[in-house]
């Protein structure tokens, strides 16, 4: 049962943690693993891994809490033996394999900063993030080393590259370390005092301009992740829980590692990519109690047809949740009518570290609405101008929207435990995320008379494509590097499955014609540098780009023109399609 909002204080949430012995602080690894071992539950299964080639009903590889404790402690010891100190950053670039999870928790145990990246990223996003985050170590796989990392090794600051899937040092390519031998020779590291404000995870997120921003989180965040896992998901010890997100995305760490382990649940991890038939089989055969997924995945299931679920009993799923993009009323109704599964929405961001607005497991569902602020979160809507900027009066005060159904920017009263503490090396951008005592989310929404929030769209130009948050500037920078391109504008257009897909308009160098050869070469360059997940789906040449007086490309105008929307209308601000 949700605690009454007024009674929830952040310290009340922190009291749900055990804390390190002798008041030595709070460590995520202790709160997610050791506390269960200490309580006598070391034999409970913490994670059940299904490998790509495993059938959906395979027993998988089971990691008990005791095993996860021993292996992550050994990995933490191994990092120390490499001379990597607390506070140094460990990057992780791998698919959803057991050692990725062991290493992530081991890095947190040793008070290193852990920064997981998407394995679908191309070399450009990888290098950029590792430079910004001052990587000390990179953990990856031999395939990713060969395909992506070896060629950019010189640009990457990491002192060590460890290959997770190599056991024997004799099999490790030159300049890399075999995980197996490294860990075999290591001793288990005991958790050292960890003040709650010790940096934990670093997650890069994208803004409208400039390089990606590294949102820095701290160990204290586990208080919020645990409390939301309990209250929003209703998850308990012994439940089987499946979060389909990759740890490269904040959802895959906050709720794909920390939250569910902190309550002692059994987490299912599937290495394979989405395949509707496999997913229905997994949900049934693995007896999933609580399922956390995303609208792009739900739309792919809708498209594949509910017939594929025939013969699988999904009604035993106790609760199902969605995050990352608008969950349309249509998707909720489809899930309920066709699968017998009611998807409940949750809204949050990389910066918030945990769910902020949601329809909890025990709340009534209003299809199309996200729900209400959770626990002690204070959320409001602030008035914006036509450019999506907050309007401040002469005293620097913002205007809260009181009328139901008027659109404003979602703003949150700062202070909850999982709130990001800064943008790494970027205090100016951090300061810009706040106004008049509010954290500004950059999303537009409306609130109905019953206090439910309804998502409207982004107030800025960032694009959500298949759940990935992409900064148009990152994509434009890579397009502009192509020798035939002198300028570009990148924006999202609605897509029935991905929410939005990325389109680009480029201006070619004088005298260069937009032949198939030229355009294919630009596309190939974008895909090679950015990776398939970030590269534009469509690139077209234009004679000129619309620019503001200050020289900025008017991406929303490009978008409005392509979609035939009235230019300058607020509807051009609206984000992904909700169909
Ligand atoms: C967790 C996560 C944050 C942005 C956010 C918003 C969009 C997230 C949503 C949603 C509509 C929801 N978003 N949840 N839009 N309905 N339930 O997604 O983090 O990758 O940082 O993205 O995603 O635009 O501002 P992140």
How are the SSEs placed, and which strands pair?
Blueprint: H1 10-14, H2 28-38, E1 45-50, E2 61-64, H3 65-81, E3 89-93, H4 98-109, E4 113-117, H5 123-132, E5 135-140, H6 142-149, E6 160-163, E7 177-178, H7 179-184, E8 199-205, E9 213-218, H8 222-231, E10 240-243, H9 250-262, E11 266-270, H10 276-285, E12 290-293, H11 295-304, E13 319-323, H12 329-339, E14 343-347, E15 357-358, E16 372-373, E17 379-382, E18 408-412, E19 422-423, H13 427-432, E20 434-435, E21 438-447, E22 453-458, E23 463-465, E24 468-470, H14 472-481, E25 485-495, E26 499-508, H15 516-530, E27 538-541, H16 555-563
Parallel strand pairs: 1-11, 3-4, 3-5, 5-6, 6-7, 10-11, 10-12, 12-13, 13-14, 26-27
Antiparallel strand pairs: 1-2, 8-9, 9-19, 14-15, 15-16, 17-18, 18-21, 20-21, 21-22, 23-24, 25-26
Can you give a write-up of this model?
This protein has 579 residues and is of the alpha/beta class. Among the domains are: 27-45 and 62-193, Rossmann fold (3-Layer(aba) Sandwich), CATH 3.40.50.980; 461-545, 2-Layer Sandwich (GMP Synthetase, Chain A, domain 3), CATH 3.30.300.30. It is built from 16 helices and 27 strands. The strands form six sheets. Strands 2-1-11-10-12-13-14-15-16 form a nine-stranded mixed sheet. Strands 4-3-5-6-7 form a five-stranded parallel sheet, with helices on both faces. A hairpin with a 2-residue loop joins strand 20 (434-435) and strand 21 (438-447). Helix 2 (28-38) runs parallel beside helix 9 (250-262) and helix 8 (222-231) packs across helix 9. The chain is globular, with a radius of gyration of 23 Å. Mean pLDDT is 94; it is low at 1-7 and 569-579. Bound molecules: ligand 6R9. Residues 205, 250-251, 323-327, 345-350, 370, 441-443, 455, 458, 464, 469 line the site of ligand 6R9.
């Amino acid at each position: 049962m949700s605690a009454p909002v007024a009674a929830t204080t952040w310290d009340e949430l922190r009291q749900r943690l055990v804390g390190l012995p002798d008041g030595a602080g709070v460590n995520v690894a202790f709160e997610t693993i050791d506390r269960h071992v200490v309580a006598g539950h070391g034999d409970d299964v913490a994670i059940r891994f299904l490998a790509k080639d495993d059938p959906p009903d395979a027993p998988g590889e089971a990691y008990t809490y005791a095993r996860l404790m021993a292996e992550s402690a050994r990995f933490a010891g191994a990092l120390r033996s490499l001379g990597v100190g607390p506070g140094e950053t460990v990057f992780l670039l791998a698919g959803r394999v057991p050692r990725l999870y062991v290493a992530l928790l081991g890095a947190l145990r040793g008070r290193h900063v852990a920064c997981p990246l998407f394995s679908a990223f191309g070399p450009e996003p990888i290098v950029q993030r590792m430079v910004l985050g001052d990587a000390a170590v990179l953990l990856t796989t031999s395939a990713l080393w060969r395909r992506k990392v070896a060629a950019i090794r010189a640009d990457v600051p990491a002192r060590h590259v460890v290959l997770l899937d190599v056991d024997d040092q004799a099999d490790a390519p030159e300049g890399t370390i075999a995980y197996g031998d490294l860990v075999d020779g290591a001793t288990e590291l005991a958790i050292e005092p960890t003040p709650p404000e010790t940096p934990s995870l670093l997650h890069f997120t994208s803004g409208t301009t400039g390089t990606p921003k590294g949102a820095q989180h701290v160990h204290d965040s586990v208080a919020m992740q645990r409390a939301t896992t309990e209250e929003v998901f209703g998850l308990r010890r012994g439940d089987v829980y499946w979060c389909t997100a990759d740890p490269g995305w904040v959802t895959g760490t906050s709720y794909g590692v920390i939250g569910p382990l902190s309550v002692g649940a059994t987490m299912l991890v599937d290495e394979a990519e989405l395949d509707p038939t496999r997913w229905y089989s997994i949900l049934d055969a693995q007896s999933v109690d609580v399922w956390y997924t995303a609208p792009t995945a739900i739309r792919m299931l809708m498209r594949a047809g509910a017939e594929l679920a025939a013969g699988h009993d999904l009604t035993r799923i106790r609760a199902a949740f969605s995050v990352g993009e608008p969950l349309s009323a249509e998707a909720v109704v489809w899930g309920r009518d066709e699968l017998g599964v009611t998807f409940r929405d949750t809204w949050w961001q990389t910066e918030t570290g945990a769910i902020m607005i949601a329809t909890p497991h025990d709340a009534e569902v209003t299809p199309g609405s996200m729900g209400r602020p959770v626990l002690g979160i204070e959320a409001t809507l602030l008035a914006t101008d036509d450019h999506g900027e907050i309007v401040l009066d002469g005293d620097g005060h913002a205007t809260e929207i009181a009328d139901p159904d008027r659109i404003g920017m979602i703003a949150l009263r700062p202070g909850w435990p999982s709130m990001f503490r800064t943008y790494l090396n970027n205090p100016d951008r951090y300061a810009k995320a706040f106004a008049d005592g509010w954290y500004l989310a950059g999303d537009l929404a409306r609130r109905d008379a019953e206090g439910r929030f309804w998502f409207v769209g982004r107030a800025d130009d960032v694009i959500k494509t298949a759940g990935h948050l992409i900064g148009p500037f990152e994509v434009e920078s890579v397009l502009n590097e192509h020798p035939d391109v002198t300028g570009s504008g990148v924006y999202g257009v609605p897509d029935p499955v991905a929410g939005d897909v990325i389109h680009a308009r480029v201006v070619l160098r004088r005298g260069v014609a937009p032949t198939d050869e030229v355009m294919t070469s630009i596309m190939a360059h974008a895909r090679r540098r950015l990776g398939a997940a970030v590269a534009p789906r469509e690139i077209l040449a234009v004679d000129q780009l619309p620019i503001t007086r200050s020289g900025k490309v008017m991406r929303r105008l490009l978008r409005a023109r392509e979609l035939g929307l009235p230019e300058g209308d607020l509807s051009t601000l609206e984000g992904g399609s909700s169909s």
